Structures are given as structure tokens and as C-alpha cells.
Amino acid sequence: MSASAAQAYMTIGEVLGLLSREFPDITVSKIRFLEAEGLVEPERSPSGYRKFAHSDAERLRFILAAQRDHYLPLRVIKEHLDAADRGLEPPPLGGRQRAPRGLVATDSVREDTGDMRLTRRQLADAAGIDGDVLAELEEFGLVRRVSGHYDGEALKIARAAAALRSFGFEARHLRAVKAAADREIGLIEAAVAPTLRQRSPGAHVRAAETAREIAALSLKLHAALVSTGLREGLDP
Description:
Layout: H1 3-7, E1 9-10, H2 12-20, H3 28-36, E2 43-44, E3 50-53, H4 54-70, H5 74-85, H6 101-104, H7 120-127, H8 131-139, H9 152-165, H10 175-196, H11 203-234
């Protein structure tokens, strides 16, 4: 391949850097997932590395903007792109509800998404999964309904599970993660129990704030432990 031809392509990391300013939530896993769903088809080098043309990057930009600005499910976006690829007039993208704020907000331990109410179809479309995958997440206790609807935390879980599927993780593989989270919840609840037993005004508010702070620290500890373990196990 000539130098000029090589410059016409980008690595997945370069595409990520190109799009991340406009779409802060984009990840390598998300790009791989969109490829697995057939929405973008980068070329491959002889050694198997993805080679993204600028047209692929623009296609990804269109997909991400359609999700963010029009709250469109991937199946509708794919229908639009397939029609354009065949030289047909694509169906209009307008007329759809814009995503609720919580659907495009960045993840945070302190983010309050409990008041979000999503139907089964809305959750599946927003997370980029199908009904069978959602059923598996429910079967293994990873996602559940609250008062007949799914909340913002269910959406976060479904999105994370969808990204992990691109690495071969199915719902059954995530049972250990769920079990560890349940044990951690028990520890936090025990830590704030004395505050909850107080009868002073604001006791429940203080307990909730303390629980969130402990959870944030626990997440940092968990990330550090995993990083250390991987470094010790994988570094030469």
C-alpha cells in the first residue's frame, strides 16, 4: 500500500478521537457493536486490523447523531442507511421524540435517573439490544422493572451489557458481577444502618449521601484492583 493510500484510512482509535469531542460517550466498544450490527463495515488489513475510510467516520457520525438528536432505534437508522446505499430515497428521520435528558447524560454515581420511565421497546432500542438479549438480562437478575417500567439505571446496565457482548460476554457470564454488586450493596447498607436508625431530621438524606460516597469510593477501589490484577497478569 502506498503512503497516500495508507493515509486515506484511520484506525479505530483515530476514529474514536475524531468523534469523541462531538460524542463524548463514544467508545471503541460502541464502534465495534455498530459494526457487529451491520451499520458500518470498515475494511480489514491482511493482519485483520480495521481500516476506516473517512466515509465510514461520517457514517458513524450520522448514526450517533440520529440516536442523540432523534432518539431513533438502530433498526430505523439501519433502514435509512440501507436505502441510501441502494440509491433509494431514505425515509425521513424527523418526527421522532428527542431522547430524554437521561438517555444522553454521562454516567455518574451521583446522576439521578431513577425517575426515567421506559417501556420494553424503548429500553431495547436505546441500549441497542433486541428482546432476546433483554430477556436474558432479566432472567439473570441484571435488569428489572420498577412499577411496570424500566428506569435509567436499567438503561445503564443494558448499555454496558450490550458493549460487553462485543467481547463475547453474555448475560450468564455477568452473574458473578451481579453477585459481587449485591455483596457490596449489603456492606454499604450495613455501614449506613446506624444513621438510618436515628430519629433526627434529615437522617435519611445523610444516609443516602453517605451511601453514594461509599459507592463512589468502592468503584474507584474496584477499578484500581482490576487494573493492578491485569497488569500483574498480562504485563511481560
